[in-house]
Structure formats: structure tokens, C-alpha cells
């Protein structure tokens, strides 16, 4: 999920199982925000150069400012693989979870593993 705060000054990429229900209050507590909402399709295009419906870690390659906070729910990090759209929603690729973290390290992107 690609999220933002009320003033659209902070952005968050949250990676979690799509079957899990997000506890927004807990996420607000973790981020220190008073209000968090889904970011607009315009913000997604501006920050990650991705169209609506294609939120992916690969969009981070387009975020030169590196101003998107990346969070992984700790439950999903226990999975051996994760799936993502490769910047188009007509395909899905499966990656080894450890390779995802290596990818983020290689593009010099910080991330946090959280319990939501």
C-alpha cells in the first residue's frame, strides 16, 4: 500500500499480506502521524512514476529523493517468497524474501520491519 499523511509531506510504502486487515491506529502510532490515508494516484505517479493499481517496491527505483518510508509487516517477512507487480499490473513476479531485502540494500533504501 502506498500511504501518506494528512498534509502529503510524508509517504509510506507498506508491504503486508493482502489477506491481513491493516490496523491504521497501530500504523499511526508507529509512524508518529495523526492521520494516514491511501495516497492519491497523482502522488503515486509523482513519487514512484507508477500508475494506479501498480504499487510495487520496484517503483522505489524512480524515487530519487528516497523520501518514502518502507515498512514490512513482520508476518510477511517469515514467508520464503513475496510477489510484486514489475511496475505493470499485467504480470506478477515472485522473489525470495531475502532477495527483496538485498535489492533494497543495493538501491540504498532503508526499510523497517514492524508488527502491525
TrEMBL record:
Occurrences of domain YbaK/aminoacyl-tRNA synthetase-associated (ranges): 2-103
The keyword Ligase is assigned to this record: yes
The keyword Hydrolase is annotated on this UniProt entry: no
GO BP annotations, alphabetical order: translation
Protein name (database record): YbaK/prolyl-tRNA synthetase-associated domain protein
Similarity section: Belongs to the PRORSD1 family.
Superkingdom of origin: Bacteria
PANTHER family linked: PROLYL-TRNA SYNTHETASE ASSOCIATED DOMAIN-CONTAINING PROTEIN 1-RELATED, YBAK DOMAIN-CONTAINING PROTEIN
This protein's UniProt keywords: Aminoacyl-tRNA synthetase, Ligase, Protein biosynthesis
GO molecular function: aminoacyl-tRNA deacylase activity; aminoacyl-tRNA ligase activity
Any one Pfam family match given in the protein's UniProt record, by short name: tRNA_edit
Amino acid at each position: 500500500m502506498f500511504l501518506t499523511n494528512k498534509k502529503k509531506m510524508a509517504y509510506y510504502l507498506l508491504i503486508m499480506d493482502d489477506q491481513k486487515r491493516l490496523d491504521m491506529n497501530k500504523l499511526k502510532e508507529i509512524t508518529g502521524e495523526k492521520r494516514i490515508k491511501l495516497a492519491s494516484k497523482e502522488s503515486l505517479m509523482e513519487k514512484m512514476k507508477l500508475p494506479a493499481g501498480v504499487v510495487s517496491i520496484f517503483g522505489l527505483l524512480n524515487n530519487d529523493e528516497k523520501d518514502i518510508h518502507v515498512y514490512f509487516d513482520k508476518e510477511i517477512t517469515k514467508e520464503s517468497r513475496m510477489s510484486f507487480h514489475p511496475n505493470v499490473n499485467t504480470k506478477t513476479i515472485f522473489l525470495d524474501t531475502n532477495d527483496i531485502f538485498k535489492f533494497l540494500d543495493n538501491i540504498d533504501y532503508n526499510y523497517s520491519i514492524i508488527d502491525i
